[in-house]
Design a protein that fits this description.
The protein is built from 6 helices and 42 strands. The protein is mainly beta. A 14-stranded parallel sheet has the order 1-2-5-8-11-14-17-20-23-26-29-32-35-39, covered by helices on one side. It has a 13-stranded mixed sheet with strand order 4-7-10-13-16-19-22-25-28-31-34-37-38. An 11-stranded parallel sheet has the order 3-6-9-12-15-18-21-24-27-30-33, with no helix packed on it. It is globular, with a radius of gyration of 26 Å. About 50% of the residues are buried.
């Protein structure tokens, strides 16, 4: 189905049947509030811009069709348990919205079976010219957001989010996106779910850049909070992301927030548990992690089994990252309260010119806490700081005695094999095998801090501690999974894949006979595949240069 500029997009959406594709004219704008209905069948329906887009992250100036809301109602929303819709290569836009741009599900449906599911938003731009509260709302099941850009999301005096969900069970896959928002990049939880017992679950957030325009630091009122927040979530993997640009404004300035919040008296099952935060980079921020193990304002379940591993934090700096009116964060790496169970912080490297305390412990004893193999620093100018500090008791041994004593049924506190640069060994004598160089000595062990290269020099005595940079870099790279054409693939795709392989073959150079053999094999394979799906091999196509062709979803 083709919808050109001026065409009736809603009529096309309503008429679409499983397996259909709705092609929107490139560059056309469809103004309105469009609704994806529930449909029978199992094949997806695809809404896309006509033509071919390059694979990967969508470009800001890509020649997309635009679906634009003229008001504060979403440009696109689901109705009931709409399922198996894919949006590929569409711009969803708002001008001065007070609401959501794309809403998948809602916050009031109490029957999980009536939530939308099996939805994909791919290579889309979600864009507010002036304001919007939310980019994409994910109160749904089984949803993927991939290769998208979300930008311009901000609202004066109101918490805004690039992606937010609190009434959807998951699973969610959020990968290879560039996300910008005023208040929070991604928030899971944040309002009491309407579905009884619901905990958003089975969430993978990988290889995204979650950032914020620096222009917002010159203005007040945008309610800047954090870059990533979990309030009610379980079985979450956050891997290979870059989180950047956070300062105190609507919150203290923590970049990453794991805080159990039921957000009402009616969701006592709320929890944050089984979270793996690994191989991420956090940079250009005023503060690091805020970890709250239980809701201090409403009934909830305790946080359990959160692991922060192989995380690089640099330019953690309370002076560099002041808020718009000069508010200063604490520069702390991790604030830990509310007795999270089995919290592990390992193999992380944390640097900055004006950091604060390494950690601050408060509240009840923290059972099963492990802090090991990290490269951490205590910077005491221009502000006095206290290393691993305990509320009201001070640094090191007294903090450990008060906040990490033995707790029946849990393994004992582990704080070993860390570099605690600038700290005093005697203050940490109850925990063995830590290292206490000066901050200058630790800094001299990094290859090139001025160029943000925090690998250790080859002869460093701290080799094996802190970030494994090879693993960190590998986690940023999408896996390459070549999909060989199958007999059911359309002829155009077989031809395009063959063209790509022939071009690679031609680019090898050197002796021509292996090239010719390779070309012959590719052409034979192509023609054999074409013969299966069409009575006559379409060999005349092989002179056309298609460039990159993306198979339809």
């Amino acid at each position: 189905m083709i919808v050109n500029a001026g065409g009736n997009l809603q009529a096309a959406i309503d008429a679409a049947r499983p397996g259909d594709t709705i092609d929107l004219e490139a560059g056309a704008t469809f103004s309105g509030n469009y609704v994806l209905p529930a449909t029978a069948g199992t094949a997806p329906i695809t809404l896309r811009t006509a033509g071919t887009l390059p694979p990967g992250l969508v470009a800001l100036d890509a020649p997309l069709a635009t679906v634009r809301t003229p008001n504060s109602t979403p440009a696109l929303r689901t109705y009931g348990n709409a399922a198996r819709w894919t949006c590929d290569g569409v711009r969803f836009a708002a001008g001065s919205s007070q609401g959501d741009i794309v809403a998948l599900g809602d916050g009031v449906t109490a029957d999980a079976a009536q939530l939308p599911r099996s939805l994909t938003i791919e290579r889309c731009l979600v864009q507010a010219d002036a304001t919007a509260k939310n980019g994409i709302v994910i109160n749904c099941a089984d949803t993927t957001i991939r290769h998208c850009r979300i930008t311009g999301i901000k609202l004066q005096g109101v918490e805004s989010h690039a992606i937010v969900g609190y009434n959807g069970p998951g699973p969610f896959l959020i990968e290879d996106n560039c996300l910008e928002a005023g208040s929070i990049g991604i928030l899971i939880g944040g309002a009491a779910p309407a579905v009884p017992g619901l905990i958003p679950s089975d969430i993978v957030v990988q290889r995204n850049t979650i950032t914020r325009p620096l222009a917002l630091r010159q203005q007040t009122g945008w309610a800047i909070k954090n870059l990533f927040e979990l309030k009610n979530a379980q079985r979450v993997t956050i891997r290979g992301n870059v989180f950047e640009h956070n300062w105190p404004d609507g919150q203290a300035g923590f970049a990453i927030v794991f805080t159990v919040r039921a957000n009402s008296a009616n969701a006592p099952w709320s929890t944050v548990r089984d979270v793996l935060f690994e191989c991420n980079t956090i940079r250009h921020v005023a503060m690091g992690f805020n970890i709250l193990g239980i809701d201090d304002a409403a009934p909830s379940q305790p946080m359990e089994r959160v692991t922060i591993r192989n995380t690089l934090v640099y330019d953690l700096d309370r002076v560099n990252w002041k808020g718009p009116t000069g508010q200063m964060g604490s520069g702390i790496f991790a604030g830990i309260s509310g007795a999270p169970r089995y919290l592990t912080i390992e193999r992380s490297t944390v640097v900055g010119a004006v950091t604060g305390n390494i950690c601050n412990f408060s509240g009840q004893p923290i059972p099963g806490l492990v802090i090991t193999r990290n490269l951490l620093q205590k910077v005491i100018t221009p502000y006095q700081t206290y290393g691993m500090n305990g509320d009201a008791v001070g640094e090191g041994n007294p903090a450990f005695a008060r906040y990490a004593p033995p707790v029946a049924g849990y393994p004992d506190f582990v704080c070993t094999d860390n570099v605690l640069a600038g700290c005093t060994p005697a203050t940490y004598s109850t925990q063995p095998n830590n290292h206490f160089p000066t901050v200058a000595t630790l800094t001299a062990n990094y290859v090139d801090p001025a160029a943000d290269n925090y690998r250790l020099v080859p002869a460093s005595p701290y080799t094996g501690l802190g970030v494994d940079h090879d693993a960190l870099e590998a986690a940023r790279v999408p896996p390459v999974t070549p999909v060989p054409p199958t007999p059911s693939t359309p002829a155009e795709i077989i031809i395009a894949v063959a063209e790509e392989q022939l071009a690679l073959c031609a680019a090898i150079g050197g002796d021509v006979s292996p090239q010719d053999a390779g070309r012959g094999a590719i052409i034979s394979y192509r023609d054999a595949l074409l013969a299966v799906i069409a009575p006559t091999p379409q060999t005349h196509h092989h002179h056309h240069h298609h460039g990159h062709v993306c198979p339809p979803s």
